[in-house]
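hey m, so remember when u said the tokens were messed up on ur end? i reran from scratch. heres the input so u can diff it against urs
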Amino acid sequence: MGSLFVLALFVVLVFVGMGRPAYGVIGYFIFAVLCPQWNWRWSLPDIAFQRYLAISCLVGFGLTGFQGRKLSSNDLRCCGLLLITLLLNAVSSTTTLSPAKTALFMGIYVKIVAMTLVAILVIRDHQHLKFACWGLALAQALNAFNINQIYFSQGHLNVMTLMWNFLDNNTYSISTLPIFALTLSLMLCVDRVALRLLAGGIVALQLHQLMLLESRGTMLGAVCIIVLSVCFMPRRRSNFLLVAIAFAVGTIMAGPPVVKEFASIFGTEAELDDSASSRFLLWRAGVAIIQDYPILGAGPWAGEVLVPQYYDGDLGDRTTKALHNLFFEMATGAGLPAAIALICFYYFVWSSAFRCRSVLLDRADALVNPEYVRSVVLALICGIPGFWVASMFSSGLLIESPYIVVAIGLGAIALAKEYIEVKVKQGVDMNATLISQPANKE
């Protein structure tokens, strides 16, 4: 039944996307998270779902006259920075040290950048945000449910050999963090109790999944997301209750192995295991490569072919070694300017969301229902730092989930600014609410 539903959803999104490109591009990213080629690999034919959804979306974008929302100066800045990273990677690819790796990287990165830019243009109203939020949350819930099901049926997970959605445990874990931030924000921001409980159930599944996968960097990123979400969540009594319940449940779920694995992050140099200590050696190698290839790098994804020459340790007979760090992967591949442009891309999105944080403390009124604006703004504030923290330990450069959260986030920020302007015209000082507004009663 699941495979039939996925096929039906795919067909519907392809046809809808040709008339409403926003739903087509959202469907494209939902299928990136859902990954039917993995979850239904025994019952579905090998269909290039995302390719057809991308074509549908682009055709729809053309048929509607390339209509998109009016972009703000910050939107244009973010789009420009993303294009700069793509351009610098393209220039660097002409002198790459590893043509095969670079060709693979560019094929994926061009697709991600193109669809992200289209998403920024066409996602522009509350219905788009609602569809994106729940579509992504439910897609990730299925992945988390399946991993939990494997654990409970087998009694264990071998994270050293585990692959999910064609990714290893570290990379897959990082791919879940932006959606985790979004789902956690739904739990704290939507108005209907049933939907908040649904989001809470998905959060519990995702948290237990992260614990099972034992990716220490991702655990640290998740802690960052949780702390920031509690700091900036709407001040409702029910939210404080939810946080207390979540803390109790999390404490119960985190058994001694998880606590020991997470605590090892903060061990002394003598206490670090091979995996943790090798990260420091990789970072040193990354710094050395950047010093020798500062402007255009060694070629997209080609930095790892240089790591054995710069690595101050034993790699055996290996001829390549991934740097396991988002910044170093971009900087060694396309140069420091490309890495700085990528950091600025995420920073300007985050800072714009942070300036709109006052919308998190206001409630819906007759003029507008901002619950999904609140959810996405909070997801940006807590999700971007958490994603970057985790990506310091294993790169998430070619993971699509952070890009769609950023794309819907820029649409939410535009709506948040409109909402704040309306409230200001009504004589409400939104900045004052950051200090003076008491907890809402429900």
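this time it looks ok to me. The chain is about 70% helix and 0% strand. if urs says something different then somethings off w ur setup not the seq
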